[in-house]
Amino acid sequence: MNNYYLFLTITFMAALTPGPAVLLAIRNGAMYGLKVALAGILGNISAVFVLAMLSIIGVGLLLASSNSILFWLKIVGGGYLIYLGVRSCNSRSNTTAVVAATKITPDINGYKLFGEAFMVGISNPKALLFFTALFPQFVDPAKSTISSLLPLALGCSLCSCICLIFYASISSRLSSHIQNSKIHYWFNRVIGGTFILFGIMLLINSFKLP
Which burial class, exposed, middle or buried, applies to 128 when counting CB atoms under 10 A from its CB (0-12, 13-18, 19+)? Predict the structure, then answer.
């Protein structure tokens, strides 16, 4: 049990570290409110659970040993982050583009945010390799059944959920200030520029494979 608490602590600290998923939760919380942002958070933790389960069954080891698969996964992930960044930078700066915390407009709905966050999460090879490196430290090879490893995957999802809700809830309190057109304009561009930076870094890193 003590080992499991250590596992959760490590996973929680990793989830708390700012990255594309955190950035997306901050954007959604500030722009659409916590209630709407929860759809995106659900999409991300679903991706975390899938990646955790994939690493449990050994796909992470396959990626670690296959430069070709890892290369293309990084290309797709980097390209998608750049796409999100460009879209954010090109969004309208007037106040009608800002969604109230409890309202979903035709342009923004839960399914769209879920799919967007799931894509950001599932296209992150670093998460899969992180799980692949972490799980063996807390797994007994003699008891490595799916039922015994499932709590690890659920723990990863729970830690990610808590951290993303934390970030989204804080940013949602700023939503009334962001309705100012000038703040909204620069908020979109800072978030978009950061997404683009993450994407470029992932693309550059893809060409550093041995």
Answer: buried
